[in-house]
Amino acid sequence: MKPLEAIADDSGDVLDEQDPRESEFGEIAERLRGDLLRLVAIANAAGVGVGDSRVCRLLQRAHTLRSEALPDDSRQALGHLRRTAGLVNDLLERLAETNIVKEVA
Fold first, then answer.
1. Contact 42, 75 (CB under 8 A)
2. Strand residues in the chain grouped as ranges (E)
3. What is the value of pTM for the model shown?
4. Could you give the CA distance from residue 92 to residue 86 in angstroms, rounded to a whole number?
5. Of 21, 22, 75, 82, which is most buried by a Cβ count within 10 Å?
6. How does pLDDT run across 41-65, given as a tens digit for each residue?
7. How does the average pLDDT of the chain come out, rounded?
8. d(C-alpha 11, C-alpha 32), whole Å
9. High-pLDDT (> 90) share of the chain, %
10. How far is CA 14 from CA 18, 44, 67, 72, 83, in A?
């Protein structure tokens, strides 16, 4: 199972000041999809999606983004990666705020 720190690193790879190389977009998109699946599974197992409207919205966004294909256009693809990485961060932070997972440094 992928550690939460590695999930935070994946999103950091995209949200960092330097953009990832275009040749890495596909690999990064797959990692972020996997990260979202893991966080969604954690949220669902804990039942926080039912009682927490913020988590519910994040889970809905996760479902939408995971179902979207990575665009062929490099600018659009980078935008998609940034939205996905931002969502990974938001969901990870909210799960830490609700004490479902430990806060990631």
1. no
2. none
3. 0.92
4. 10
5. 82
6. 999 998 876 678 899 999 999 999 9
7. 92
8. 7
9. 76
10. 8, 26, 19, 17, 10
How many angstroms separate the Cα of 83 from the Cα of each of 27, 41, 45, 79, 87? 16, 20, 24, 6, 6
> How many whole angstroms from its chain centre is CA 77?
15
Distance, CA of 18 to CA of 24 (rounded, Å): 13
Place of tokens 């997972």: 101
Question: What angle separates helix 74-97 from helix 4-15, to the nearest 10 degrees?
Answer: 140
Half-sphere exposure of 102 (CA within 13 A, CB side): 5
Query: What are 47's two structure tokens?
Result: 């039942």
Tokens at 87, concatenated = 């969502």
The CB-based long-range contact list for 56-60 (8 Å cut-off, 24+ gap) reads 58/87, 58/90, 58/91, 58/94, 59/91
